[in-house]
Design a protein that fits this description.
This protein has 270 residues and is mostly helical. It contains eight helices and no strands. 74% of the residues lie in helices and 0% in strands.
């Protein structure tokens, strides 16, 4: 079995995990949630094995580079970071409902990588500018940050659904965690992601200097990375200095993740 075949299978396991978490939330049953956790753990483990196998395959082909150099590879790594970080959040907060909003994001990233006809899963030699350990550090740091922002985005959607629901209503949205819990968890994830995004921008600048002799060039991807950084910096600033809570933080979290998506996908269409 090749790494591409394994990762294609993992796509459907992520999808099954997302479905199980949704079923646990909708039907308020413990068993689907436990199944979702097991499937999420299996998917993340298989995701990691697929990436390691792809790394080995690149050496077998005489190319020999870390599988973090193109859209297919970065999306599979993005799914892995979402899966691992979500499992930590689930274990830390003992709440599987979050999986109904986080795991679909890991599934969509893997599905896009594995099923989109516009994305090639071929292992190809690196361009000279990409042959740098700084590139590996840059990609890893950025995508850990992106994963935190992705889960914060899912939790912000939960906040909007939960907002205004009374604890006595007994409705579907009332089963979500309370608004203060969602607000605080969004803040913690954004702080975590912001640190990693900052590290990603710094390592990216060092890589750019070693590859092209300049730290910053204001190309579209660099510009939108900076805009994304500013959005999350504003979120943290307003929470700390102005005491923003609730809706305002959730809105900035959603806007920030949309900026992440545009940074990664939209600028390629410009």
């Amino acid at each position: 079995m090749t790494s591409s075949q394994l990762l294609s299978i993992i796509t459907f396991i992520y999808g099954a995990a997302a479905f199980a978490y949704l079923a646990a939330w909708v039907f308020k049953k413990e068993l689907p949630g436990k199944i979702g956790t097991g499937l999420a753990l299996l998917a993340a483990t298989g995701n990691l094995l697929g990436i390691l196998l792809r790394w080995k395959e690149s050496y077998d082909l005489g190319i020999g580079h870390a599988p973090l150099s193109n859209l297919y590879e970065s999306l599979t790594f993005f799914s892995l970071t979402i899966g691992v970080l979500y499992l930590y959040v689930e274990r830390r907060y003992k709440n599987r409902v979050i999986g109904a909003f986080a795991m679909p994001l890991a599934f969509l990233a893997m599905a896009y990588a594995s099923l989109s006809p516009s994305i090639s899963d071929r292992i190809q030699p690196l361009l000279p500018a990409l042959k740098s350990n700084w590139l590996i550090a840059h990609v890893i740091a950025c995508f850990i940050g992106y994963a935190a922002f992705a889960i914060a985005f899912g939790i912000s959607i939960m906040f909007f659904l939960r907002r205004g629901e009374s604890n006595e209503s007994g409705g579907l949205f009332q089963r979500l965690p309370a608004e203060p819990v969602l607000d605080e968890l969004t803040h913690q994830l954004v702080m975590f992601g912001f640190l990693w995004l900052t590290a990603g921008i710094i390592t990216g600048a060092v890589w750019a200097n070693s590859a092209w002799g300049r730290y910053w060039g204001w190309d579209p991807k660099e510009t939108w990375s900076f805009i994304t950084w500013l959005i999350y910096a504003a979120l943290l600033h307003f929470r700390l200095m102005r005491g923003w809570r609730g809706k305002r933080i959730a809105v900035l979290s959603v806007v920030g993740f949309l900026a992440v998506l545009f940074t990664y996908f939209g600028v390629n269409l410009l």
